[in-house]
Amino acid sequence: MSQHYRTFGLACAALLIFSFSRVQAQFVTQGPNARVEFDAVNVPNEFLSNDFSLLCWVFPQQAISGSASVLDYPGVLSVVALPTSTRVVLASSSIGSPFIADVPFPLPTNEWSLIGVSVDRANAVFRCWTHTSSGLHASNTISLAALGTQSLGPATGTFHIGADKAGTPSLQGMLGLVALRTHVLGSCDMEQMYASHDFLAPHMYTNPNPCGYMNGVDGCRWMVGHGMTAGALDGGVGGTLYTRSATVGSSVIPTNVHVYNSTFGGTSMHWHNRLRVVQPVSHVQDLVYVSHFEPPFDGFFVRPVPTDGPTEDIAGHEFAHRARQLLEGPNGLVRVVISANSRAMRFLDGDGGDAPNFLHGFLATHRSSIAGIAQRPLSLWTFPTLHTWFGFSFRQEVMRHSGTVESIMQTTTNHPCRDFSHLHTGSVGASSNGPGAGVWLFDGGLCAIKAQSEPGSLMTSDAPLVVEANYLAYPGASMLRITPERGPSQATVGTTAAPTVVPCDTSTHTHTLGSNDSVVGQVVKLEGDHTSVYAPGALLVVTTGPAFPSSGVIESVVLNGTHTSITLKHPLHATPGAGDQIATGPFEMRVYSYEFAQVASGDPNTWRGFEFAEVPGGAGAVVFSVNAYRPNVNGFIMGSVGWGGNGYQLQIDKSSPEAIVKWMKETKADIWLQVTANQFSQPPTMLAYTTFIRQALPNCDIIWAGEMSHGGGPGATQAPWHQYIIDNADNSDVIGLSSLDDPRLGTFEQQITDGMRSDTAHITARGNTIQAEVWLDLLAQYLLTPCPIADFDHNGTKNVFDYIAFGNAYAAGDLRADIDQSGTLNIFDYIAFGNNFAACQ
Questions:
Q1: Are the beta carbons of 607 and 451 closer than 8 angstroms?
Q2: Which of left, alpha, beta for 215 (phi over 0: left; psi -120 to 50: alpha)?
Q3: N or C: which end of the chain has fewer CB within 10 A?
Q4: Model pTM score
């Protein structure tokens, strides 16, 4: 019987181990001259002659002794905090005196206040409010009769937040979201927005009461201070991905100010994307991105969460003794694999820090117990790009390569070697032939990759390091020369060890295509009976001619009259013709391993790894990925697998059953975190993918993990996937976790304000760490209770039959009975089971 949980708080163990700060997208002032000035062209001016409202969150940190500017649009509008009031001034050149409204209550220090301004041209009045912890405070209603039909303004300067150009210093503290709306406000709008404790209420709130006017996103014309992303859309600032990125603790600069404009991108752009647009600003000074969820700004705002997810967060009845180690610490070397789509494989965004994928989230939460990294993909496509990946980093320089080195996942030359991508995993190229990443070496081509020391982890230069290469043996392949090397950096050689030349050719038969042979689509037709030499599950490789080295896994072999029809799982990338040679035989995932000694103190050659070179004479050599880990310690070896832009259905369809099982076995995973991967897929593909894991790794603990909501329109929450996880985890013998409604993640819009997003589909390194923290907390709530162990027969109750089931497992040598996780079965397992049984209520 399934165990289902609804979470209402934090599991203490996970909270203590994995607590993590949140950083938001607001500006905190660094002095009296702090301000950001916006280009006039990017500030909508239609509000000058129409109804409008303005809303702003502020958190003063200093008592106001004179005047403190909140925002100013010279000649149009200003908001100033005074010692005893908040003043709003409207101006028009068509009249002599400005309109002034004072809220007769000072903005309190060290708390959040909401400022609201409403200009009602139809009724010729304007009014303003502040809402603080002491309640709603309103100005008098000011008549605009003298304005008539004239417009406000025109502006005599740029719109700016913070200090004005007349010399009024900035309000000191946090200047939060500022929203300009296309309608008037009422008192109950202010009350409801403040009571919502939602930072994005000025942008999104819809007032259900007849007294209000707030109409949600539709009424927000323009907004700033709402977002911080590492994959910002360029709204005219130019620069690079890095200069447009707004990150935790970074300075506000002219190229990274996120500006929401409701008309940007036209009607085809979803408003979610407008949240991450950066537009030009004229000047920025003394402002830094900080958090309204960190002291001293925390305690007021809450994050709304998606409401379409399942009613439970946890399901399943797997014992998961191995998975418990994610919470209690590793016993020996524990291998963890995380699978998904691009959110598992992405290697960079504008942050420039840790790779923005799920793997690096767990590497952050477990850094002190990380012994190594697995399945680091090799790819020429990423060679030219500086980026960080735990262990094998390209932060300062790219990996060394020369000669013919092609990426199998995506090549600018559209090379036939792309067919090898059907055989593995790890591609970030959505348009690659298959899910695999790796390099194909030919004509003496070589590449080299080394692992560096990772301070704060177990993988350090003062300890031994095992480095492994995951390479392919296939029909017609060349030999591969692997040279262990050390150096002072990724691309620099210091010292080398003796090379090893490994054979990779698995040919059992070769054939030269004749004039009566043909290749059409997925079918290779050979004249005569060849059924004895071609077999399903084997690989066919073109070894000569223009189609070299196209390849395909054989699906069936049938004699049709005078010809043998060989059907491949996928069409060859290029079509061979008469005179070209093909080879067939098994394909194998092989591992070459080398243990480096610890690096002596003072030796600069702390980077350790391999140079790979093809030995000419065959159909090239393929290396998929590398591993590196410290041996003989209690630590995690973590890696990620998947295919960017493609869900599990295509990850299965564009590979072959034989290949999937082979590379999964190669991982030797003890724990597999299978995150949703939805593109071109339906929720039941979770189980289809799990079936392969079970076949390859029957003793692996599997966790189905539903992730945070994403952006871009309907379906972005992936709610059906979360529901499938909860409904089917039990029968699928996995643990199911749904994090969709966790308040630490919130809705997509909240993630934008929280620095969790690169874009609508991808998550920052920081967002991945928070996501990992949430999953670990859910896992703790399930596994750090005694009941899953006490209910040994999984019938939903604890009774004598659980003791019988435990005894039978113990007698059979089933390691599920290893309750104390010692690796052996003994009397202490009986004691541990009895203690769990007694503690389970």
A1: yes
A2: alpha
A3: C
A4: 0.91
- CA–CA distance, 248 with 235 (Å, rounded to integer): 21
8 Å CB contact between 742 and 774: yes
If DSSP states are collapsed to H, E and C, what string results for 399-415?
CCEEEEEEECCCCCCCC
Give 686-711 pLDDT, tens digit per residue.
999 999 999 999 999 999 999 999 99
CATH 3.60.150.10 fits 509-586, yes or no: no
Domain boundaries, the chain: 26-290, 323-504+589-699, 509-586, 787-839
CA distances from 103 to 88, 118, 136, 378, 506 (A): 8, 13, 10, 63, 83
Q: What is the 3-state secondary structure (H, E, C) of 313-363?
A: CEECCCCCCCCCHHHHCCCCEEEEEEEECHHHHCCCCCCCCCCCCHHHHHH
- Residue 31 pairs in a beta bridge with none
**Dihedral of the CA atoms 264, 269, 270, 276 (nearest 10)?**
-50
What are the residues whose beta carbons fall under 8 Å from the beta carbon of 815, sequence distance 6 or more? 321, 699, 825
CA distance linking residue 570 with residue 524, whole number of Å:
11
Burial 260-278 (b: 16+ CB within 10 A, else e): bbbebeeeeeebbbbbbbb
Contact of 602 with 462, CB cutoff 8 Å: no
Q: Whose CA is closest to 760, among 708, 719, 685?
A: 708
* Percent share of the chain, pLDDT over 70: 95
d(CA 558, CA 681): 32
**pLDDT reading at 412 higher than 80:** no
Could you give the CA distance from residue 239 to residue 246 in angstroms, rounded to a whole number? 13
Q: Decide if 702 contacts 321 (C-beta within 8 A).
A: no
Rounded CA-CA distance 235/265 in Å is: 9
CB atoms under 10 Å from CB of 8, counted, come to 7
The 3-state secondary structure of 88-99 reads EEECECCCCCCE
Let me know if domain 26-290 sits in CATH 2.60.120.200: yes
Count Cβ atoms below 10 Å from residue 794 Cβ, excluding itself. 17
Q: Which residue has the tokens 């009976």?
A: 529
Interhelix angle 827-839/800-811, rounded to 10 degrees, is 160
Tokens describing residue 21: 């700060």
Q: Kindly provide the b/e burial profile for residues 245-256, where b requires at least 16 CB atoms within 10 angstroms of the residue's own CB.
A: bbbbeeebbbbb
* Direct distance between the N- and C-terminal alpha carbons of the chain, in angstroms, rounded to an integer: 17
At 429 the pLDDT is: 87
pLDDT band at 18 (very low <50, low <70, confident <90, very high): very low
